[in-house]
């Protein structure tokens, strides 16, 4: 697996892989902010986005609904951040379309949980960011 992944990265070019990861991270962050999430870090890594859900939304319940209802797995916090944040990875076999899918799922789950959500807000923000390249 490692050899195949390394071949794929080299075939695409490391600069391209890093640029796509950065694009996914920026798009995810903008989408989450449009839904009222607050980023954990003011200088986040492009490998993962960690964020506090909007006021009144349980990170644990959101994660459970995403996985149970839509088959989308996101991570929670660890240590003192356990049950406080969600984490969305940007490494691996993902692309910007996956970002749009995850954000749509988050938006739908928030709506079902009773959160005030402007439909399409996360996608509009993420797509606007992605269009910048």
Question: Could you please describe the fold and organization of this structure?
Answer:
The chain is α+β, with helices and mostly antiparallel strands. 55% of the residues lie in helices and 10% in strands. The chain contains five helices and four strands. It has a four-stranded antiparallel beta sheet with strand order 1-2-4-3, covered by helices on one side. Helix 2 runs parallel beside helix 4 and helix 3 crosses helix 4. The radius of gyration is 15 Å and the shape is globular.
Question: Which helices and strands, and how do they pair?
Answer:
Layout: H1 2-12, H2 14-34, E1 38-39, E2 48-52, H3 59-70, E3 75-76, E4 86-89, H4 96-112, H5 121-132
Antiparallel strand pairs: 1-2, 2-4, 3-4
